[in-house]
Amino acid sequence: MGSTASGRTFGDRIAEAVEARQSQIVLGLDPDPAHLWPGSHDAAPAGGPPAERAALAVAAHCVAVIDAVGPAVVAIKPQLACFERLGAPGRMALGVAVDAAHDAGLLVLADGKRGDIDVSATAYAQSLVGSTPTPFGEVQGLGADAITASPYMGVDTIRSLLQLARPAGAGVFVLVRTSNPGAADVEDLRLADGGALWERVARLVADVGSEGVGARGLSDVGAVVGATAPEHVARMRELMPDAVFLLPGVGAQGGRVEDLAPAWLPGPAAGLVTASRSIVQASERGAGGRAQDAARTEAERLRKVAWALA
Amino acid sequence: MGSTASGRTFGDRIAEAVEARQSQIVLGLDPDPAHLWPGSHDAAPAGGPPAERAALAVAAHCVAVIDAVGPAVVAIKPQLACFERLGAPGRMALGVAVDAAHDAGLLVLADGKRGDIDVSATAYAQSLVGSTPTPFGEVQGLGADAITASPYMGVDTIRSLLQLARPAGAGVFVLVRTSNPGAADVEDLRLADGGALWERVARLVADVGSEGVGARGLSDVGAVVGATAPEHVARMRELMPDAVFLLPGVGAQGGRVEDLAPAWLPGPAAGLVTASRSIVQASERGAGGRAQDAARTEAERLRKVAWALA
Q: Is the Cβ pair A151, B186 closer than 8 Å?
């Protein structure tokens, strides 16, 4: 579990990984059991309970996708909901995907958008980037290298996550301005003392992250910044000079890598482009050919576009 | 799984349950494997992996707590993080707690504070209050009767949860103004067009909830309203006339049931008081005696105080 620790900060770890792999692409994994790559079902023996069979197929699918796409990406971003809906077997499938990613030299960004009061935030950190002391021995968590978090409940919830993440060399990506249509409802609200709510949250992220800037100039507190609102990216960079931006919304949601250049002002690892369906379903979305080949081609295309901008 | 459906809305279901049990108390379950009731460890056979042993002990603890306290409460509120940190065995322990609660006639409010874009929110709803179609058969979710959700990403994320929750007769409790110190950082921010952010969120909750008001006058969209800021409760009620309030922060966090009267203006089920440590750890927190007896006495005390106010 966990390729973390060894004394380096998350910012240094991601900077080194991006440079070594010349990639800023993050492979989103949100497997739908009804929509897996051909051959994944062969991993599910006939006759077992549906959850176990589906989870085995999901695990096989994730391993195949990581195999095909791994060389073009720097990390995976499993969407925890997609695994949780398969119950306990789903958690095992998630562990398989995480191990496959680590074996392929990739980092793992666990996408759960957690946020809770101190003791509960600690339990989430134990679950995802740490471990839990019990009278029966230490229970290892998922071994992720970073997690996503919601800022609604305030900075203490982020600090509680960091208290375990930081010593483990893991990072926390805080939702700042997301890529969904509803982002306008709350994130874009104008504040009485000026600016939008997301700008205030960006300042909070910069503040809590200033204590976790590594030797390479990047903080262990990053920001989720939707690629569907590229007009905000320059302002985000101004407000969060040391934060790594996790940029969802490219491809299926309409964002374009070409619009995200300000993300990379601090260096090539300062912007991570996540893509899920546009890579994994590239074949059926128009590229045709084998799922593996189409996915790898699309990931490699994205890698080159982003790398040229950085 | 799930005592949901049968055509009734969550608002009607909670109204009936509160009246039948004469209780508005919700038992929070946030089990720490290092801090379980005496005897729980007997359920963990020697020699297994730590996660399995800890999960079996946690399950035994939860069943014992539900046994002791069940008669005084209307629902349990498992904190998902505390189970997730034990991996796949933790998910099984959570299922045991949910089944024990349903067997005892209690509702289950799954406390995960989820919030994500459409497809991911759907996956969370499948996981917690619905089921997931797979080529291997339908995979049943946790069978919870309601879930907690974060509003940061906007109304579409809440609507996506409701799309599955509502037909199942399940509810969604949206974070409005929470009980932690950091709540001031974001939730209390003043908006340019007047009021605090939490007031705007309250309006959004009322709006999305207006489509789910049952025959008993309560909506299936509730609000998490920290009992540590009782000065806001009357204003909350004004803004969300049909919402069931989930009121954490009583006891360990300093809130007092006596201060929450405006919550119950629409009826006895319109305010649910959650208490975790103050009930489960009542013995060691000063009451003394057997853990079971002290917990039941404290839960019964809270029940009477709240019922007298409603």
A: yes
